Structures are given as C-alpha cells and as structure tokens.
Amino acid sequence: MNFSKQDLVRQLEVSAEWRAKKAAEQPDESRHARSAEVLARAVEDVAALPEDDTRVNHIRRLFHSDDEEAIAAYDGPAILLIADHGFVNPDATTDELLDKLADMAASASATSFGMQLPSKRLR
Length: 123
What we know:
The chain is mainly alpha-helical. The protein has five helices and no strands. It is elongated and about 45 Å long.
C-alpha cells in the first residue's frame, strides 16, 4: 500500500472541510471554526515539508510494510486524531500533530510484531 506526503495533506484537507461545514451548521460552537483554521494551517505546513521529513517517513514505512494489522491499528486512531486537531486544544501545532502521528505509526508497527517498544522522539 502506498502513502505519500500528499495523502496526509489530503486527509488534513478533508478534515478541515468537514470542520468548516460543521462550523456553518453549528455557529454557536466556535471550536469547529477554530479547528478548521488550525487544520487549514496544518495543510499548508505539511505541504511545505521536505519529501524526506522523518515523521512522514515513519508513516510511509508503516504503509509500505503491507502489514495490514499494523495499518489498521494506526489508521482509525490517526483519522480521529486529525479530525480533533485544534478542536480541544486551540494552541495545537502541526509539529505536535506530526509527532503524535509518527509515534502512533511506530507503535502500531511494534505492536503488530508482538512487542511494544518505548516511543521515541522522532525528530
């Protein structure tokens, strides 16, 4: 299974669009609009990353491993993490999001192999 930086950008765009739609539907809930803005910023930040960004490479390696169990362990929680970006924490940064996603990818790979390795700072 392939994964590219553009795939992550697209996931972020879809989440930003969904949050913007929710902001229009629920104007009294300001967290939707704020999250849409934070996600839109993340789209720009990730698009500007170099192709060899270590964090994106950790995610890419997971998908290129074709380890369906590890990919499944990563994918659902990663989608939720992206969807919640900026909703609860208005000061959430793209670096924090990428660090968490890379940690989740490493953890999913380790768990799939029957071992839980301690997470490392991937920068």
